[in-house]
């Protein structure tokens, strides 16, 4: 690349020397509040569109309830968490769920090839819990500082106002961590047939905390009782010719008929720690936790049984944030989760207003009692203490008081050098993508190859060659078939050197591993940036 290109700066004009990583306490430690570069970048991004959502603009929603089994797998739920929403057997917690596409505008077709949002607002006895996830269990990137770049690359070109394949693959070709998600999205799993037959996932890693203050890592999943059903590109095109809102229609009509969709909520659990035995970091949201090692443990059921009375008041003004947790559910140091926790609620304060939690669809089941006041569109006071003159704490004159602390607090020990880090466990950037390709059924592989081939034909040659290089390192058959479908010279692609500044495929702390399974002698690495159980019939419903 040309060295005379202009330098990237912040809005303050400061040169940006590292645009790839948040500042954190060590490689796996939490992000810090003084992340000025990130905060400036993400808060500006949050305000790029109004009033339509920047992402997840096209959506629909429904009311329902969540009912906990009181167990996690075969164990009492209280063994892992003190969250009442997960431990109280048979209690029906009201929920509002919003489904959506990610990139398209509000009136874009629901047949778009895109991840699907699966956002749930639980109105628990201890206040709101928002679980803001997607249908697929992974994501394109693992560091939140890259989110605005990713969305800009995937959104329409600012000059042509068209979604251009070369922009998508230009970004992806320089981020090998995205290969796993690309393999999912460009397969039929990128077009769910409807919302009722679609999985949900937290994507990010959280922690469950019990009464003793002990914590485990966890991921949340929602498995549809109807099974999973996806569409090929041809099937999606046929539906889109008749109806651009088929999934909204399907969900509304099913609930209207009394056919209430249901999902089983499951968690995967892992001990809190670094897990050197794994070839991926469990906090990396571009990776799945293998279900044979970390099984899906049933926790409860989610049922949707009531359509909104008004789409704007409920669906469009519903607002979710990954930072909205209840006692017994806590944050992990997942860098995407830490960034989303600032971005999501900040976006809602800008898009809907600082008093968005006064709206009925967003208000907690238990009345809020705060000392926060005023702001745009305030129409109520969050019921303060006995003395309306006192809107501060502490006070001896009848103001609000802090809640008692009964269970032990969870205290995470953190130690490390403050800096910008990228994960050094990168072997799985290629491994899991290759495994997913080999797990697909032949009709899914055919659709994947056809979609990638058609896209890459529209890209410049350097991007074509690099993408084939990536796919070939995921799986040799994968790369060979993509090259043939797109008319790309496979040998020229294979001859490319590894990306500058990136480990070669299969290389991690344990030494390089190649696609044929061989290993090289272990060598020290530089301190990088130191800085479905049912078989599917053709395009049919199934679990995976």
Task: Annotate the secondary structure layout.
Elements: E1 23-25, H1 36-46, E2 59-68, E3 71-72, E4 75-76, H2 84-87, E5 92-101, E6 116-124, E7 127-134, H3 147-154, H4 165-173, H5 179-185, E8 200-201, E9 206-209, E10 215-224, E11 228-229, H6 233-240, H7 246-256, E12 262-271, E13 297-306, H8 311-316, E14 329-331, H9 335-351, E15 418-420, H10 428-439, H11 442-456, H12 461-474, H13 476-486, H14 490-494, E16 507-508, E17 511-512, E18 541-542
Antiparallel strand pairs: 1-15, 2-5, 2-13, 3-4, 5-6, 6-7, 8-10, 9-10, 9-14, 10-12, 11-18, 12-13, 16-17
Helix pairs in contact: 1-9, 3-4, 4-12, 5-10, 10-12, 11-13, 12-13
In short:
25% of the residues lie in helices and 17% in strands.
Largest sheet: 10 strands, antiparallel
CATH architecture of the domain at 52-141 and 192-358: Beta Barrel
Would you identify the CATH H-level superfamily of the domain at 52-141 and 192-358? Answer: Catalase core domain
> Helix segment count?
14
Structural class of the secondary structure composition?
A: alpha+beta
Helix content: 25-40%
Please tally the β strands and state the result: 18
Report the radius of gyration as a whole number of Å: 24 Å
Shape: globular
Overall pLDDT:
87
- Please identify the top-level CATH class of the domain at 52-141 and 192-358: Mainly Beta
Report, as a whole number of angstroms, the end-to-end distance. 42 Å
Proportion of β residues? 15-25%
CATH topology label of the domain at 52-141 and 192-358: Catalase HpII,  Chain A, domain 1
Uncertain spans, ≥5 residues at pLDDT below 50?
509-544
Protein name: Catalase
Family: Belongs to the catalase family.
Biased composition (Polar residues): 9-23, 507-516
InterPro entries: Catalase (IPR018028), Catalase_AS (IPR024708), Catalase_clade1/3 (IPR024711), Catalase_core (IPR011614), Catalase_immune_responsive (IPR010582), Catalase_sf (IPR020835)
